[in-house]
Amino acid sequence: MRPRAIEDSDRAEWLRMRCALWPDVPPDDLAREVAASLAPAPRGAVFVVPRTGGGLGGFVEVSLRDVAEGASSSPVGYVEAWYVDTDLRGRGLGRALVTAAEGWARAQGCTEMGSDADLENEASHRAHRALGYRETERLVTFLKPLG
Questions:
Q1: CA-to-CA distance for 30 and 120, rounded, in angstroms?
Q2: Out of 22, 70, 114, 124, which could bridge 136 as a Cys pair, Cβ 3.0 to 4.6 Å?
Q3: Which DSSP state fits 90?
């Protein structure tokens, strides 16, 4: 199972995995993002891993950001989302997806790659470290409604 660029026919499977990654986000919101993301965009890409026998088993969404925490260059490749189905984890698919994202970022002229993970997602922290990423900072964000 090797990563490839996403295709329009992958829409339903990609949405399924995005819903698994972000279960607290309304599926309609995620579906709108999928529809918008399938339009050609020079500042982003999506790679997927097909399952043997059909369907998808993982994806990575990558973009170019002007800045990223700890980066000294611009633009910076950035892993926006990264997911592998639970039954396929531990087989190197996540590594293959991130390698594809890094290759895309290099082709865009990037010399650094950023990513993030929720503070409590220790599995993601371990996966990032295993791929050579170093933690640059911890962040707690705040929001106040104005009105």
A1: 22
A2: 70
A3: T
Owner of token pair 């698994």: 20
Please give the Cα distance from 103 to 75 (Å, whole number). Answer: 14
**In 3D, which of 80, 72, 112 has the Cα closest to residue 97?**
80
Token pair of 78 as six digits = 């950035």
| DSSP symbol at 74 | S
Domains (ranges, CATH) in the chain?
Answer: 4-130 (3.40.630.30)
Distances (CA, A) of 80 to 2, 30, 54, 68: 20, 14, 25, 12
Q: What is the pLDDT of residues 3-36, one digit of tens each?
A: 999 998 999 999 999 999 999 999 999 998 888 8
Q: Is 128 exposed, middle or buried (0-12, 13-18, 19+ CB in 10 A)?
A: buried
In 30-75 the beta strands, taken as DSSP E runs, fall at 44-50, 56-65
